[in-house]
Amino acid sequence: MFRKIMTLAVTAAVLVSGMVLFTACKNNRENPLLQESTLPFGAPDFSKIKASDYLPAIEEAIKQKREDIAKIVENKDSATFENTILAFEESGKPLERVCHIFFALTEADKTPEIGETEKKVIPMLTDLENEISFNKQLFERIKTVYDRDYETLQGEDKKLVEEIYKDFVFNGALLSEKDMQRMKEINLRISDLQQQWGDLVPDATNDAVVWVEKKEDLAGLSEADLAQCAKDAESLGKKAPYAIVIVNTTQQPLLANLDNRDLRRRVYEASIHRADGTNKYNSYPLVVEIAKLRAEQAELMGYKNYASYSLERTMAKTPENIYAFLKKLISEYTPKADAETKAIEEYARKTMGADFKLEPYDRFYYSAKMKKEMLDISEDEVKPYFNVDSVLINGVFFAANKAYGLTFKERTDIPTYHSDMRVFEVFDKDGKQKALFYCDYFRRPTKRGGAWMDAFAEQSRQRQQLPIIFNVCNNAKAPEGQPSLLTWDEVTTMFHEFGHALHGILSDCQYNKLSGTSVARDFVEMPSQFNESFATIPEVFDNYARHYKTGEPMPAELKERMLKSINFQSAYALGENLAATCVDLAWHMLGSKEVPTAEQAVQFETDALQKVGLLNEQIPPRYYTSYFNHVWGGGYAAGYYSYLWTEVLAVNIADVFAKRGALAPETGQDFCDKVLSRGNTGDLMQMFSDFTGMQQPDATALLKARGL
Known about the structure:
Layout (H helix, E strand, L loop, with lengths): L53 H20 L7 H9 L3 H16 L3 H22 L2 H14 L5 H17 L5 H31 L2 E3 L10 H13 L6 E3 L16 H12 L11 H17 L5 H6 L7 H34 L7 H16 L3 H4 L5 H17 L2 E4 L11 E6 L5 E10 L9 E6 L10 E8 L12 H18 L15 H11 L6 H7 L11 H10 L5 H18 L12 H11 L17 H4 L9 H19 L4 H10 L9 H9 L7 H6 L3
Parallel strand pairs: 5-7
Antiparallel strand pairs: 1-2, 3-4, 4-5, 6-7
Helix pairs in contact: 1-2, 1-3, 1-4, 4-7, 5-6, 7-10, 12-13, 12-20, 15-16, 15-18, 16-17, 17-23
């Protein structure tokens, strides 16, 4: 997933990076969050920061932000780019610094104390966002500069004015007094509901763990997986000797190997029912209220629904464009999906009998057996070659070195928020400092599900700030003394998230607001999806796919079988994504009076999938509504389509790399110059065209790339 576009939306308008405020904590020590860090790059000094520091730091930083805004508003001189636009861009830097650090922890290491602080912080930040968004005097000064100077400004100055002005308009600065007041109320309520979602769904997922008493019930799992289940049971209170934890997606990877059909059923049902009210967790009341409030926001702004409102500033522009894109994919995908399901069921009936009915919890199991028989390949056979350390150093970093000339030096002297985290200093091809990169790859109860990228600080020439970027994943950490081995999906996820990281690391922009991943969400996933292509380039693959014991590369014959298997029965992966995309859009195409009740939500979801031809028990959505965090807890409302949309862009770009030389430095440099370094400083489609030479993306390439 993108840089953690999942950062709470409420912070978007108020986050801005690094001045010094000398404020004492209650015990008279200076709050380290309000002092300029002495570490390289201004990195956060986690050796000094305590959980109790965040609330007073944010309170003081909010005060500073208000003072900065007041200085702009009270300026007696007429509004100019420097005293209004640039002053706004540079306002409240301490707040951005503190919030970047704090919200990294709320996502990746949410201890009870951090969670309690978050509950206090969100309303404060929402109040501040409302104050700024609806500050008429501030907006009048911004509008004055936009109306008078926009046509004569150049380059990033022009883009900065445009983005700031449009942000205010998008948030409701042109509304009537009455509608502004209602929008403020909606903003506050949505932030509260998203806070509740952020507490409920991770708790529900953790609680959905499936306990297993007997080792024989886990037949089919590898010794490494058995050890992991035992370790998970230990860390979760050991209610039984073994525990199968539920990951964030609908389908669960372990189902591919579990021989025990009833246990497969229990795991699958634990996943899909984690937050639907069939247990003590029910997210539907939150969902329907958020959906209704978003629809009302759109109506206040003059739009029919939230999808139309939110898509206006994206590449897709309208829901109609997205549906046209999806319709073509669905029509070509459906017969392949039906054939795939039929083939798996027929295969299962060879051993289970002619009347065997394939269930969704059987699909991964028999598909894996079928793949083993047809292609002579299994996940357990290849996992020993995917040690997490080798994938990172010899794969992810190696590819970045070949394509972009980057080198990486581990820094063990820089403190982190958790002992699992590693830190690397990044240098460009000339040996010049480029960025600081953190990685946090292992799951724990205090971390939400999924994978993402974010920053402790974005690149900005204006601020003389180099980027401080981090990646977070949820891989299983092996018991002490054993290697942490990855599935192929986890390998590609590491490459994916590092693609986002590269978008931040290689940024070369004047202004913080425009740098790195600050682009439309249906463009932001392109660098990450493209970076996945490096995982299978022979020179890269051979460098990292090495046996954890011997260090020997994967044998050529095994490698050939493994690479052939990547697109085996690939209709499923496309189908679960299409279904989730259409569920997201269905909720956000509603008017405020059309939103169903919490009790009607399941039927609404079913009807929405039926309507687009994607109601398929065998290929459920990647996320059902009740645990669709991208949409209800993050920044992808009416935006989950972005993954498919940007995959088209990514495939087109990968084709260009392949033609020019996939690891040719000149190709990487050209891509960096025209796309990765430019952030949101220009038209995004033009950036794509400048690099590829294509006027429009070629959507047919997506199906081909997926083997369909």
